[in-house]
Amino acid sequence: MSTTRGLTSKERQRREDRRLAAVELFDQGVPQAEIARRLGVTRQAVHHWHRLWQDGGRAALASAGPPGARSCLSPEQIETLKADLKRGAVAHGWQTERWTVPRIRVLIHESTGVWYSSLGSLWMFLHHIGFTCQRPEHRASERDEEAVRQWREQTWPRVKAPRRASTPGSSSRTNPPPP
């Protein structure tokens, strides 16, 4: 049994097109073994498609779309959420500009009434609508990048310990290295 998780919409469309091509061949009376050969699939797959086609017609072989639960938010609510997230956390009353998944859950609940009980599923939803995890760099506001660069290039090479010359040796206390 194969899984369709992780397929792109293009790949799902390609698979649906192959099933619908099989429907055309069913209509023409082409044997199932020949359909399998032409489409590059197993005979079992063609047999399964044929049964579905007999029971439900062409619509039975249409793609069901991406796997998983449907979003609790309407497309309009999703667009509003994207706009709210782009406005920033401070604009919504938080002290810092950093969005966290728990903060986003509260924002969604306040604006739509939908409560995501699982932070993991909310994170997957955010990823699905195009948001990625961003980890801010913590740097002192007084940091002088030019001074750091000069120290790395000029001071550090002078103060670091020089490498020892390579000599034969042994890690054993009882076996000294050969002369």
From TrEMBL:
InterPro entries: Homeodomain-like_sf, Winged_HTH_dom. Residues 96-155 form the Winged helix-turn helix domain. Residues 167-179 have a biased composition (Polar residues). Signal peptide: none annotated. Residues 138-179 are annotated as: Disordered. It comes from Streptomyces incanus. This is Winged helix-turn-helix domain-containing protein. It comes from the Bacteria. Residues 138-152 have a biased composition (Basic and acidic residues).
